[in-house]
Amino acid sequence: MAAKKTSKRLAKVAKKAPVKVAAKKAVAKDPPAKKVAAKKAVAQDPPAKKVRAKKVAAKKVVAKKVAKKAASKRGATKPVLLSGGNPQIAKADGDAPVQAYIAAMPGWKSEAGRRFDALVVRAVPDVVKAVKWNSPLYGIEGQGWFLGIHTFTNYIKVAFFQGMSLTPLPPGKSKDANTRYLDIREDDELDEEQVTSWIRQAAELPGWVP
Fold first, then answer.
1. Measured between alpha carbons, how far is 111 from 101 in angstroms, rounded to an integer?
2. Long-range Cβ pairs for the range 185-194 (8 Å, 24+)
3. Burial 160-172 (b: 16+ CB within 10 A, else e)
4. Do β-strands 144-151 and 155-160 pair in parallel, antiparallel, or remain unpaired?
5. Which of 63-72, 112-121, 190-199 is least confident?
6. In angstroms, rounded to a whole number, what is the distance separating the alpha carbons of residues 209 and 145?
7. Could you read off the pLDDT of 125-142 as tens digits, one per residue?
8. Which end of the chain is less crowded, N or C, counting CB atoms within 10 A of the terminal residue's CB?
């Protein structure tokens, strides 16, 4: 009987032994999951706070660059207004500088300038344009400039450079023997038919050559 009990105990120990050995081997091969995950996280990525701080700093740098570019663009597209609100536009030939001047005319003057420009184009389809001395000029290729406009505080002054040869005479006198002026004010009802007639007459005469 004693021999049978001893053999049974040995059998139980033999069965448990492989399980304990396997468990020890598993622990030896693989440390606890939490420790492994933590070590991997630290090895792969710096602490979360440092990552967030770097991202925030990077975003601030980008935001500053964008703000500087936007400010630069605003400064580049916003012309200076000289005495009387006359836009300061760099000398250049073509329609583009004239449109830049008109767009920069303050208040009601911009719309009035746009309407006047449209009258000139309709009356003289082959008109050439330029901005010189901060004033839009209109002319005929090879003939010089027949009119120009300039912005003042309370009105827009249209100069017909051969105004003394127009019929009827534009109302404004000039110190120049040939020039006559037309002043356009905010509440004026512009006689487009008469203005168109002056424009066409002026375009047929020899223009002003600086």
1. 12
2. 185/154, 185/155, 186/107, 186/108, 186/112, 186/154, 186/155, 190/112, 190/115, 190/116, 192/119
3. bbbbeebeeebee
4. antiparallel
5. 63-72
6. 6
7. 999 999 999 999 999 999
8. N
HSE-up (13 A, CA, CB side) for residue 124 = 25
Q: Are 113 and 102 in contact (CB under 8 A)?
A: yes
What digits encode the pLDDT tens for the residues 80-102? 999 899 999 999 999 999 999 99
Q: What is the pTM of this model?
A: 0.64
For residue 121, what are the contacts with CB-CB under 8 A and spacing of at least 6?
127
Residue 150: which of 167, 133, 163 has the closest Cα?
A: 133
CA distances from 24 to 12, 15, 18, 32, 201 (A): 19, 15, 10, 12, 110
For tokens 């208040």, the residue is: 107
| C-alpha dihedral sign at 10, 15, 18, 20 | negative
